[in-house]
Amino acid sequence: MKNNPQEFKAIADVVVEKLKDYLTESQAGKGKVLVQKPITELAELMHLEKWIKTGGFTPQAASDFLDTYLPNTQHLHHPNYIGHQVAVPHVAAGMADFIHGVINSPASIYEMSPSAIAIEMVVVNWMLSKVGWFKGDTLANGQPISGNGGGILTHGGSAANLTALLAARAAIAPESWVDGTPNDLVVLGSEVAHYSVARAISIMGMGKKSMLPVAVNDWEVLKPEALRLVYESAKNEGKRVMAVVANACATATGLYDPIDEIGHFCEENNLWYHVDGAHGASALVSPTERHFLKGVKRANSLVWDTHKMMQTSTLCAAVLFKDYQTLGTTFQQKGSYLFHEKEEVGRDTISYSLECTKAAIGTKLFWVLAATGEKGMAQFIDNLYQKTRQFQQIINDHAHFNSPYTPESNILCFQYTPFGTSNEFQLALRNEIVRRGNFYITSSEVRGIRYLRLTVMNLLTTEQHILGLMQEIIKVAADLKKK
Ligand SMILES: Cc1ncc(COP(=O)(O)O)c(C=O)c1O
Fold it and tell me: Is the pLDDT of residue 301 over 90?
């Protein structure tokens, strides 16, 4: 393949045609949702070593390659994909990725891609407006406004959580950037906070033990009375609370912490309040489901992934701040080749983000919103949340299945009970279902008890598919018991 416009068109035609077939078959639920061949066999089937060493990929070779590559991926568009919190991407997001891949428009400094950075600014303003942190008349407003929020897109929720905690540290101990983190700082958060929170704390040199876990109820929702106790005991030990972290929603169960109540507590005690809404902040777009985030305006920072609930491909996350000035305090480093005095016609994002070079990730969200409109996006989220409640009903209508709590998002936990509810058996069930490849589901432990877990990401997943899954579980369980 030559690196020229004609060859580009020839190969793009091949790729588009193959992807069209892939989408058609996946969406029709044809074939398996997942086939997992051994890794060496797969590497050989794709002739990876040969291509790396010799080059010479042609449109025909690309077509043959895709005949192996595509079937051996997870089929997220297949209605039986009910697995991880990874978006079934809208085709519009694919267009944004495609354009970015061809032109490469890093969204870090304005002069490298004015249009991508303008898009980042507008989608961030749109997200801020959903939280109630945007005071401008138009989303195109790029000027600082007193009382306005601010935000930045990052490559994923983990980077966003780290950024938010760095902002919290800059607020309580601004000298940390130069002197290192003082050892009296602690973070209080749900004992089931996503591991990226503990990881961020370790990365910041605070040591994992600086995360003081706050007890949760049986379904992993933070108990406000436990938060008070942990706070009092931290204070008594002479610790300073750098941040309080709430889940919106918990990764395993999909249930929201009491966002408003925790917010009141943080306000009363003047504590930095961080809401990890990597999964569930998207409900803010939906007039019917946004009540789960009531009080989110009380937060100082909010993480919101769009590659979970808003149909963008990986990755596009946002870290949003109540006060736009936080952006300027979080990172204090300077690089003379990037951060120099210049006549700025637009806004560089580099000073405010963890990444140096950053992809034009905002374009994915823009393209999807440009296709669906915000109402369409709200309907999409409503639909997934409603379906999940319906699916729970179907599961609980069967005497041998038990889903123990009412879902609040699109995450649902349940067990198949006739052969007991041991963790080993539920896990074995999940593993065998995935091995057979007709359905893709996950499993998670909630307070030491293992459940099968669904994340309903695909509008094409219907009651019939859930009934089909239940039949598959019954069959697999019987086969496992025979062994
Ligand atoms: C609550 C929560 N926070 C953070 C993350 C990490 O996000 P990412 O995978 O985008 O890094 C996840 C991922 O599942 C999550 O569920």
Answer: yes
Closest to 30 (Cα-Cα) out of 66, 79, 99, 72: 79
Distance CA 390, CA 459 (A): 13
Cα-Cα-Cα-Cα dihedral sign, residues 399, 404, 407, 410: negative
- The CATH number of the structural domain formed by 373-482 is 3.90.1150.10
pLDDT given at position 1: 86
Q: What is the position in ligand 1's atom list of the atom closest to the CA of 156?
A: 10
276 pLDDT more than 60: yes
Tell me the C-alpha distance between 346 and 110, whole Å: 6
| Other Cβ atoms within 10 Å of 166 Cβ, number | 23
State the SS3 of 175-197.
CHHHHCCCCCEEEEEECCCCHHH
**Contacts for 414 with CB less than 8 Å, ≥ 6 apart:** 392, 395, 401, 402, 403, 404, 451, 452, 454
Ligand 1 lined by 442 (C-beta under 6 Å) = no
Domain boundaries, the chain: 5-71, 102-369, 373-482
Q: Is 388 in contact with 411 (CB distance < 8 Å)?
A: yes
Using one digit for the tens of pLDDT, what is the confidence trace for 167-208? 999 999 999 999 999 999 999 999 999 999 999 999 999 999
Please tell me if the CB atom of residue 305 comes closer than 6 angstroms to any atom of ligand 1: yes
Q: Is 430 in the pocket of ligand 1 (CB under 6 A)?
A: no
Inform me whether the pLDDT recorded for 366 exceeds 90: yes
The confidence score (pLDDT) of residue 340 equals 60
Instruction: Dig out the tokens for 342 from the structure.
Output: 């210049």
Q: Are 438 and 413 in contact (CB under 8 A)?
A: no
Residue 317 in contact with ligand 1 by CB distance below 6 A: yes
Hey, what CATH class is 102-369 in?
alpha beta
Residue 420 has pLDDT above 90, yes or no: no
What's the gap between Cα 68 and its chain centre?
28
Phi, psi of 364 (to 5 degrees): -65, -50
